[in-house]
Here is the input.
Amino acid sequence: MANEDRFDRCEISCIHEEAVAAVKQTMISDDEAQSLADIFKTLADRTRVKMLFALMQKELCVCDLAAVIGASESSVSHQLRILRTNKLVRFRRDGKILYYSLADDHVITLFRQALEHASHDEAWAAQFLDLIK
Amino acid sequence: MANEDRFDRCEISCIHEEAVAAVKQTMISDDEAQSLADIFKTLADRTRVKMLFALMQKELCVCDLAAVIGASESSVSHQLRILRTNKLVRFRRDGKILYYSLADDHVITLFRQALEHASHDEAWAAQFLDLIK
DNA sequence: TTTACATATGATCAGTTGTTCATATGTAAA
DNA sequence: TTTACATATGAACAACTGATCATATGTAAA
Here is the structure.
């Protein structure tokens, strides 16, 4: 019934009802938006960015990663769990050592887009665009 | 002097010195990694994801946005400031009303990549891949 | 088995983030 | 100028995040 829309207007006064209705129809749900946000959240930390950046170039074990990015092994291990949970990295075991690498190429593309966005303001970004594929 | 490297090994015992040295050479700096992380951080919130998703389809004013995503106008205004600061949206004024829209197309590409990553596990993601360009 | 070592996990805590409520700003009509 | 309205901003607070330290797990050599 057409009246149900009216109730909303008591709480939030929108100005362009047609536009709002149209956009609402193709709107992403709360859960879906959360899933997308979670992917970006996984990339939204300096330590994890450096870890993924290193893994773009070569598979590395935990203590190598710690040495490369200058963080503690415990910290790296904790962050690797987050990356694993979100399926951005995978690992293989060789004896006592776990070798981590990127799970797929989406991370690379995400980084490239972010670098292109950054390169509008920051000169350094261009050099890395050449570097990653 | 070649000995300086030796000091590092007292703190962090890395196993593959050559690999670590090679990756270190092309490593992104702390500040640069932080800049990239900040871009992803801007996208790492459900409310902002929904806002950007809405703006992909049509320019909208603050109260329209609030109505579309079901949040308070104050909350939307706060989040818009974050999106403005990070240059993901821009606005034009028409009388009392501010119309917001996407600043450029990088957001769309970033969303597409995230959706492709998500579509490995989540069936809903594919439908939005068709929707956004 | 012990022992050593690579890595994972749990608890704690400071720092950050997002929402809400209250208040301020800026614009235009009356 | 008042008034109304669209939006911005500030303060306060709960929830979340990441680093650290301590401890546990799993693997392989001794």
Notes: The CA atoms of residues 4 and 10 of chain A lie 11 Å apart. The first strand of chain A starts at residue 60 and ends at 61. Chain A touches chain B through 68 residues (CB under 8 Å).
